[in-house]
Every structure is written in structure tokens, then in C-alpha cells.
Amino acid sequence: MTDSEEGEGLNSRGDGNPKENSPFINSSAAGDAEKSQQYDGKNMALFEEEMDTSPMVSSLLSSLANYSNLPTGSKEHEEAENNEEGARQSKKPIKAPQLGTLMGVYLPCIQNIFGVILFLRMTWMVGIGGVFGSFIIVFMCCSTTMLTAISMSAIATNGVVPAGGSYYMISRSLGPEFGGAVGICFYLGTTFAGAMYILGCIEILLIYIVPQAAIFKIEGLEGAEAEIALLNNMRVYGTIVLSFMALVVFVGVKYVNKLALVFLACVILSILAVYVGVIKTAVDPPAFPVCLLGNRTLVSKGYDICAKLIEMDNETVTTRLWGSFCDSEYLNATCDEYFTNNNVTEIQGIPGVTSGILAENLFGNYLKKGTILAKRGLPSDVDPDSPPSSTNRYVLADITSFFTLLVGIYFPSVTGIMAGSNRSGDLRDAQKSIPIGTIAAITTTSIVYMSSVVLFGACIEGVVLRDKFGEGVNGNLVIGTLAWPSPWVIVFGSFFSTCGAGLQSLTGAPRLLQAISRDGIIPFLRVFGHGKANGEPTWALLLTASICEIGIIIASLDSVAPILSMFFLMCYMFVNLACALQTLLRTPNWRPRFKFYHWALSFLGMSLCLSLMFICSWYYAMVAMGIATCIYKYIEFCGAEKEWGDGIRGISLSAARFALMRVEEGPPHTKNWRPQILVLVSVDAEQNVEQPRLLSLTNQLKAGKGLTIVGTSVQGTFLDNYTEAQRADQSLRKLMETEKVKGFSQVVVSSNLRDGTSHLIQIGGLGGLKHNTVMVSWPRNWKRPEYHQQFRNFIEVVRETTVASLALLVPKNISSYPSNGERFTEGHIDVWWVVHDGGMLMLLPFLLRQHKVWRKCKMRIFTVAQMDDNSIQMRKDLITFLYHLRIEAVVEVVEMHDSDISAYTYEKTLVMEERTQILKQMHLTKNEMEREIQSITDSSRGSIRRKNPTALRSQHSNEERVSLVEKSEDEAGMVSNPKQQTQSHSKKTSTPTSPTSLTCPAGPAGDAATWTDHKSPPTGHEEGKDPFNMKPEWENLNQTDLRRMHTAVRLNEVITRKSKEAKLVLLNMPGPPKNRNNNTDPMDNAMYRDYPFFTDVQVMIFLGFGCLLAFFRIYGFGGMVFNFLTATFAIQWAILVQGYFQFYHEGKIHLGVINLINAEFACAVVLISFGAVLGKTSPLQLLVMALLEVPVFAITEWVVLKYLRINDAGGSILIHLFACYFGLGVTFVLYRPGLKEGHPKEKTSYVSDLLSVMGTLFLWVFWPSFNSALTLKGDDQHRAILHTFIGLSASTLTAVALSFMLNKKGKLTMADVQNVTLAGGVTVGASVDMMISPAAAYALGIMGCTACMLGYKYLTPFLARHCRIQDQCGIHNLHGLTGLISCTAGICAILMAKEEVYGPSFYEIFTHRAPMEGDPKLLELQALIPGLKPGLGRTAQEQALFQVAAVFSTIGLSALGGVITGFILNLPFLASPPDEFCFDDELFFDIPEDYDSPFSCKNNLTKEDCTA
């Protein structure tokens, strides 16, 4: 910039806005000087204006460098201290976070993961579920947390995670609704975890440490009474401990944090004690004897010595155990029957790791509540009919156990993985420490858990493992029996660890709730965001303690554990979901430093979480999901709107894009069509909408459904009128909200209103979601000269909607329409159905009557009958039509008889024609003439005085009459026939009308329509001229135009008379007929075009193949009948299967002759494969073979044609190669060793050979139709027929010559005539429609015939002897070898094909080589070949490679399908014939007595006898 330019720039006013003195928004005068000093001497004056909204990079970097990340509560606490010490001049500097991976993440996660379940329930779980089942449970749960940790690490390293942990991650990733719902679930899970830890603490205290402290005594109680007493003790002591812990947390969190290390040491020492104890059991197992009666475990407190009797001083004395089961101490006492019949055994409870007890504990032993714990393998004499007695002496199962219960109880022991992410603010390098520490902690705990499962099962007796409370081992904690040096190590260690875990839960849960409350997304929780002056969440702590008390009241650790499992699993599920969504959506902000994640792992983790939820407890899962759903909906409706750039909005955008792309794929089906309305409104100088009732009508018409775009245009330039455009947009939005119109607003700024409206019509909507209907109000005061431009704009809208094939709705007197608050208690909606419009005119009143304004109005339908019409029959037909449309309406047929043409009609027609002559004399262009005609027509309307009754002006009058006009028949007809859209636009011009007027049809050349009123006095274009003296001029009028004008006048009169009292009148305008004579080209009908080919292929299938396969001497019935049966079934089955892949649209398979032809080709595939197993299969096997082969063929055909896109007109690849190798695969599996040397019945006869040659002739004659049926009509089909005939002729001549040459006797062999003569038809198949020349076709016929002949001579025996392929009819020769030759020839023809040879049709034959969409060459070709579709732009080499790929793909898929089918056919219940009945009709047919006479003659009689 030069100095002069800079000076000019500083002095110019630019866009008219004065320059700000300060570059800061809302800056005060006092602060401006200080702020402006930051830029002095920085040479940044060029960017001063941008600094209002965009800070300098240096300022941004400075703010990032000074960033302080403090956990929740710390910052408030610091501010409170600063306020209290306000007198101090300097603040105490904040110490930077110093925690590393070990202290900040690893150890906290270890402490949170190891918990009460490990010490109190792990051994019981191994005993109940077995080592194998428990290992599966542990592996599933640990895998879930590991996958969740991977997802969490990715989220946690994608920026800073402040306090709130998982809640923060989920809410910022999935939005406030999901974040709040899952945050509350995580909060509830943490709270119930506190209850679980407290219950575990009380259980250890009352059962293992001081049982005497129980308030409700359990001694002497049995069954439910003992259980209730235990639960009541848990409730009382639990409430006391909860109150104490809440008080400790309230007094000071710092004391809890100081004790955390002590609690962690207890956990680690306890686990180490267990491992040391396990090692010790290998050398010196501890003495924990268990007493068994029979195989039942006895309660240790019920006996002193594990024996019934003992010897004391040479005297047999009863023991305490005897007294427990007998009524006295004496030997003659009456004892329990089971006690009497079974011996007492003492076993070692801890046999040791080397004892081999692992094998016994390998599998589970699930028990019902009250079941006595029994040892496997010990004898037990029990009477099954007698009920068990003295059950209080045995160790009983306290709950009914099953696999899913174990999962729910165990899962809380793997939670706590969020401890590291919750402390991210205290970490030195959070993005490094969180992934390493969390994954290392999960790995450590998983190893401990998995090893514990194995070690417990290997060291402890099964009955001890299943003894939940250690009743059989002197009331010891079962895991404590393993510990070294004493069980008390585990008892006290677990007690203090559960206390610490409970304190941690009561510390963390209130802070999580406080973080949710302070986000403000859940209004009713905002009170819990407040706390003490130092930020401690007092109210949140109170709520947490109250919810925790609910868990205490439940009182059962086994019942509380599944509850918190649900909440934690839901939290983990959404962590995985958040990571997966962020990864798949590829949001720009998703840049985690942790790289070892993948969306598939996240989805796997999410699936595991969801599965475990329902595995644990389906009803708890439903309750948890219900709570989350309620919170989600509450936040959605009542919560604060937060924009966090979450993934759900990204999903919405992706889903919207996907939906738009799907809508773009094709026009909507008639069933899915609905009016998508573009409402064109105008605004005044203040940018307020001038026709607000248009939106009222839109709301009544749409009822909140479908697409609605409300558009307007602002005159001017975008730079100068942007503010006005914004104001207009706000006005539209406000009015749409007032009228409850759900849709979008769109404002266009244009140099004139006409172009602006045109732009709205053209660009409204997005992709396939575009408007199909335009609603515009009838112009106000259109008769006045000053409003002529407005009316011309309206006419342009009508023309543009016609060109764009859009329906047009024009309400007249829009200000008199009812508002949304009004109600019609009675009245009619009149529909004048003059021409059929596809049903849209019927749809409009139906939609209106759905709204409460029009609900009580009845519908009347009027139709017009001419002189020759049967009005009675018309009425019946219309009633039937409405019945099928499910529309209730009163039907009336109005008869319009011929009458004399009025003078007014003559005068109006004369005005139009005279003005047209004037335009011709002015030598105007066609476009100018059409516009001038319209403007003259508009002016002529001004001379027609129209009645304007007061009823039309009154908004609330019962005689109010308004009209809603739809455009022409052809445009509305696009609903039912989309193909007519492009054919009708240039042939018609449709215009709107009023209640007292009707539009006449437009002329074929696009003549403008006119408006007329029968009651207006006739006035000419020359003032004062008497129209009755104009008769000589009338005689020269165009009679067509005169009749149209007459129709309009008469129809207007009838409508005015009939619908005078109607609330609403609906009219539709006719368009010019597209085909006046209603003549169609017969060849446009598939019946005439394709049916001859269908009949030819039918002959080949049923006669050709049937006769050809009847060549065996005594298997003629089977050859022909089974061919008939299989063909019939295969065609029907192929119609369905191919229909699904190729002709399935909008929920239906569309049938036509072309479907049948394709099904015939699929049938031919089955019949060719049938030839390989001819005579060796049952009818049931053949049907199953067809059932399986058709889908495999359809899938292969679909893959090859859809994805490889090949040229194969004659089906050499898809029909012959597929059928051949499928049949060979089947016969390979169905190999019969007994037929290796042939079969005596595998012979032909004179008659059977004649019949087979007859089949060959049928195939030979109709093979050209087979090869040309699906080629392009015209030259391509012509070439296909010629090439096929030439190839067949060449193969026939060659076959006869080679047969004489190769026969040792020099004679002609009938097998050669029957098969080899057809080889030419297969060989030319792949190139049959290409320009390969007749000579090439002849050469291909010779080559195919030679290969086929040599194959029959040498290859077929070789395959039978060495490859286990018994090819009965030699299909490999006729279809396999020749098919490969044909494919090779086709590839060569593709490589040599040039556009210079083929001309423009080159791209019709090789469609995939046509230019792609957007290529300029495509437009040139489409000008030469109308309807040419874009191709793939392939080169010849690329197309050849795809042909090769198709060959190998087809062979591979067919061979694989054939082998699989063969194995299925080998199933014994498919009735495969034995070897002796192969090639014999007797097994399946009721045959005549002499069916085998030729065979018998040859074997038993002389030649003379046979001749006789």
C-alpha cells in the first residue's frame, strides 16, 4: 500500500459506519488508553478492526500459558481464602501439579478397583460358578473395563479433563442430554457403591470380628427369621456408620485423603498375604478341618469333635454332634434318620495347591436357596421321600445362585477405572499418565483376579468355597483361611479397605453431583451446586447420604451390587459410544494423543456393556435405562441449552446428509408423495410480512408435517441490504413460530423482486429435499395500473412453476381466510374436479380437514358431465373411486348442455385475436410476443367489471368463499406418473383463477389463458363499441379459441351458482393433451417387443433341453419329465430371487416379460448343470439342487453386473461357465465308484437318439433368440442373430467332418451331432453383439466345435478316471471349454474395439466405457445419442481386466456353490437312487411292460427274434 492509498483508506468512510476509537468491544474510556498501549509500536494497525472479535495470537498464547486447571472445589476454596486474607498484598502462588503416573493414576485406580467383592464374595463365586465359569465372568468384566479404558484414554487425551471425570467426558462428547443422564447414573452408581462398601464393612464387623455386637440376636434362629435379624443388624449399624462417614466428609476432606494411603496399604498387604498363603499351602497347608455328615457340610459351631462317638476311659461316649441330631445323650436315643444312615467324615478345608482339588472345582455347582452344601464324590444315604430335618445343623445356601447373578455381584469389583481421569488436574502430564496408569492398573487387577480364580479353585475345598460366611470353618472369612500368617490379616485389611472405599465414594459422589448442578443442564438440581465457603458440596453430600441410606435399607450386599453394576455399565457404555462416534464422525477437534484406539474396539466395549447389563439383571437394566431416558427427556425439554460441540449434533448432521443422499436417489413413490410447500410472501418497508394468513393456511394444510419453506425477496444489493435481509428473516421466523409452522425461512436479496422470487423457486430446498408445491397469494388490487408490475411478477411465477413441474396453489382473498384459532362449526369444502390430476385435488381437502379449523366442514365433489356422458354412471363411478381413496364426500354431477355462444364470449375472443395480430405487425420475437400477449391480457382484465359481494370482504361471514387453485393436470399428475414430467412442461401454461372465474385451457402453442366473468357487462377494447354489431368480425374468429372461451364462461356460471354457500372452493386447471389421438407405438410395449424372444427361449427350455436329455435307452421319462419339473420350479424360484436383486423397488418385485426371460436364463443354468448328474439323482435331489443353484447364480450375476460391469450379451460367462462348473462341483461330490467302469443301462437306442437329435434341432433353431434376447434393440440385436447363426452353421459342418475323421469305422456318431453341433452358439456368446465380422464368427464356430469334439473324445474320460468327475452329458465340453474360448474372444474384441469403427453407438454397446458424469465429451455424445447415460470412463485394457476378473470370479463362486450343494444332496433323506437303478425309469415311474424290450432283446434273444 502506498502512502497516498493509506491516507485515502484512513480518511474514507468505507461502508458508512464510523470508525471505532477503540479496538475493544464495550471498552470504557478509562480502559481504552491502557488497552491501546498494547498495540503501540506493534505495527498492527491493519488488524485493528478485526481485534473487536478476534484476539491477537499473542494474547491467546499468553492466556494458554497462564492456564490453571484446579479440581472442583479447590478454586472456590482458594478464592475464599483470598477474600479472608484481603489485607495481604501478595497472593500465595498456586503450586503446579506434581503427581506422576504411579501416585496420580496407578495407585488410585488400584485402590478403587480392589474392593469388598474380592474379600467377601470372590471365593464364593469360584465355588458356585466353578473355576471355568468364574474365569469367564472375570474375563468378560475385565475385557469390558479394558476396552472402556482404551476409549476413556482417547477421550481424556483429547484435551484437558477437569473434575467431573466421566461426566465431563460424556457430556462434552455426546451433548448435555446424554451427559446429564449418564452423569446422574454414574452419580447413583458411585452413591450405591458407598452403600455397598458400608454393608461390606458391617458384614465383616458383625460376622467375623465381633459377632456379639449384634443388636438382633441370630443365635437360635433359623431360616427367614435368622436372615431378617441379620438384615436388621446391617440396617442399624449401616445407618450409624453412614452417619459417621458423612460427618467425617463434612468436617474435612483432607482427613479422608490423608487416610487414603493407609487404606491402600491395607488392600495391598491383604492381597500379598493371600499370595504368600497360597505358596505356603504347597509346602504346609493350614489346618482348617471341615466336618461332613455323609456328603453334607456341618456348621462348625454345632460340634466340638467331628465324630458321633468317642472312646473315653474305655467307655463309648456320645459327642456334642450326637446331641445335635438325637433326642438324648444315650446310645439308645432316637436320632435323625440321615444321621443314623451316614458316617461322619473330616476333610481338610485347605488341601493346598498341589492337592489336585482344581479338577473337582473346575465346573459350577449352582444352588437354590436353602440347599445343603454337599461335597461331590462322597456317598450319601438319603431317603428321597423324607424331607430334610435339622437343617440348622448344616451349612445352607443363603440365596438362589445362577450365572447372571454372579456377573451382577462380581462386576463392581472391576469398577473404579475413572479414578485417574478424575484427578487429571493434579497430574504433571495428564495426557501421558491417564492412559498408562489406567491400563496398567486394569492389567494388574485383571491378573490378580484371574489368578485368584485359579488359585482359589486349586487350594480350597469346594464346600468351603461355597460356604459364603465360613460357617463350616469356625466362622472364618474363607479367603482369610488362605492368608499368611493369620486370617486376621485379611479380616482387618478388608475391614479398613471397605471403610476407606466408602469414604472415597461419599467424597467423590457429592462432587460429581456438584459438577452436574453447576453446569445448569438440570434445573431442579441447581440447588446442589452450592456449598460451603470453601466450595465443599454440603447440600450434595446430604442428598448423597440420603440415597446411600436406600442401599443401607436394602441391607443385602448381593442385592445392592447388581444395582450399581447397572449404573457403572451404563456409564462405561456411553464412554465407549462417545469414543466411537468421535472417531467415526472424524470431527476436527478429535485429536487424541493416545493413538491405540479404534472405533471397532469402542463398539465392542459398548456391546459388552449392554450385554452385561441384561446378563446381570434385565429388570434392573430396564429401570436404569428408564431413569436415564427420563433424565434425557427432562433435559431435552426443560434443561439449559448448551452448545459443547458434541457428537450427537455431528450424528444429526451425518444422518441428515445420509437422508438427503437417499432422497436424491430417485423420485418419491406415489404413496410417499406429500406437498412440500414453498410459501412465497412479500414484506413491506419495515420488513413485516404482508400476508400473514398465508402461513395460517400453510399450517392448516401441513399440520406440522413435511417440508415447509417460507421465502421472500428483498430488493437491493447484498452488501447494502444485508441488515434488511436479516430483519426480514427474523420477521419470517417470528411469524412462523406464532403460526406454529415448522419449517425453514429463506430470504434472497436481488436487484428486483421478480428475479428474487425466481431464485427462490430455483434454489429452495437442498438436494432431494426440495419443494414440489409453490403457494403464492393472488395479487392485491391487480386491476389498478400501479399494480400491473406486481401482477406480471405473478404471471412469471406461474410460468416458472410450470417449467419446473411444480404444483401451484393460489389462494384468493387470503386476508379472509380463517386463522388457526377460528373454528367452522358447519359448512362445505367444494371440490370442482374437472380434469383428473392424479389425486392431488382430493388430497388437499383431506389434509385441510385434519386441522381443527376445517374439521367439521363436509366435503362436496362436483364433476362436469357433457351431453354424451352418462351422468348417473359417472356419479356411481366417482363414489366408488372415493370409497377406494377412503374419502367421505357428497358427490354431485353437473350437466353442462350445449347452448348458444354469448356475445360477451365473442367479444373477449375477438379482443385476444386482434391484439395477437397487432403483435405480429410489430415484428416481435416469439418470447417478446408471448410476454406482450400476457400483458395485454392483464390489461384487458381491467376493463371487466367483476362483482365483489360484501360476503367476500367479511372474514367471519358464513357465506365466505375462497379458492385454492392447483395448477394443470400434467403438473399435478407427476404424483402418479413421474415419467410425464419432462414431456409436458413446454406444452402448457397454467394460470390461477378466482371463485367466480375459471381458467380456460391453454393452446397447444403455449397461448395464454384468460380470466372471465359471465355476469360482467360486455365491454370491448374500443370504448363505446357495440358488440352486437361485430358479427362480421366474429365469423373470422378461431373456433377453437371461441369454444374454449365459451367453456370458461359456462363453467364459471355453474361454479358460482352451486358453490355460493361453500366455505372453500377448490378448482384445478387442465393442461393441453400430450397425445391427441391416443396412439401408441406397438414396439414401445414390452408385450410386442420381448414376448417373441420369450416364446423362443420357452421352446429351448422345455422342448430343446427335454428332448436332448432323453438320449438314454430306458431313461427317457426321467430325462424329459425331470427336465419339465425342474424347469418349472426353477423359473418360479428365479422370478423371486432375481426379482429381489434386480427388480425390487419400494417393497415390491415388479413383474414383466423381461423378468420371465431372465428367469428362463437362470433355468437354463440349472438344466445345464442337471446334465452333469443326469440319471444319478432323484427328483427331490434335482429340486433341492435348483433351490440352491438359483440363489447362488442370482448373487453371482448381481455381483458381476453391479460391481464388475462386464459385456456378456450371450451369457458365456454368467450362464455357460457358471452352469458348467457348478454342475462339475456337484458331480465331483456325488462321485459313484460303482460307475467308474460304466453302467449297463448307460446306453442309447435308435428311438432315444432320434428324440435327442430332435432336441438338438430345437436348440439349434432358437439359439439366435437366446443370444439376442437381452441385447440392445436395433443393430446390436441384428448382429447377435447373424453371428449366432453363422457360428452354429460353422460348428455343424465342422462337427460332421470331425465325427467322420475321428470315428475308427469312419462313420458319423450321433453323440457328436447331438452336442458338438451346438458349440458355435456358445463360442460367439461373449462377443455376439460386437462388430467381430462374419468371418470371425465362423472361425469361432470352428474353434468351439473342435474343442468340444476333442473334449468328448479325450477330456471327459480323463476327468472320470483321474479327477472323480463323472460328467454324464459332457457339459464341460459343450459349455466349459467353449465358454472359455468365447470369453477370450470377447476380451480380444473389447481390446480391438474403436470408436471410429462403431461410431457413436460404441458407447451404447460398451456402456462402461462411456465418459463419466461431468465430462464435456458426455454432453457431445448425448447430443448425438439422446438418453445416453454416463459411464465409468474405462479404457479398453481396464474393461478387459474386468472381463478376466468376472471369468475367474464366476468359476470360483460356481465351483464352490456346486461343491456345497453336492454335500447337501448327499444327505441320506434326499433319496439318492442306488447304483443298480441309475439310468432307469422304473424306480420313479409307472412304466409300460415293454419299456426295456430293446435292452432285453439285446441281452437275451437273437437278432432274428428281436427283428420279429
Provide a brief overview of the structure:
The chain is mainly alpha-helical and about 1500 residues long.
Output the keywords:
1508 residues, mainly alpha, 17 strands, 55% helix, 6% strand, globular, disordered N terminus
Give an account of the 3D structure:
- This protein is mostly helical and 1508 residues long.
- A 10-stranded mixed beta sheet has the order 8-7-6-9-10-14-15-11-12-13, with helices on both faces. The protein has a 3-stranded antiparallel beta sheet with strand order 2-1-5, with no helix packed on it. A two-stranded antiparallel sheet has the order 3-4.
- β7, α25 and β8 form a beta-alpha-beta unit.
- α9 (176-209) runs antiparallel to α20.
- It is globular, with a radius of gyration of 46 Å.
Q: Work out the helicity level.
A: 40-55%
Q: Provide the residue-averaged pLDDT.
A: 76
Determine the number of helices (DSSP H or I, runs of at least 4 residues).
Answer: 53
Largest sheet: 10 strands, mixed
Specify the overall morphology: globular
- Helix- and strand-based class? mainly alpha
- End-to-end Cα distance, whole Å, is 123 Å
What's the β-strand tally?
A: 17
Strand order of the largest sheet: 8-7-6-9-10-14-15-11-12-13
**Unreliable runs, pLDDT <50, ≥5 residues?**
1-48, 60-94, 922-1035, 1071-1080, 1495-1508
Computed CA radius of gyration, to the nearest angstrom: 46 Å
Oligomer: single chain
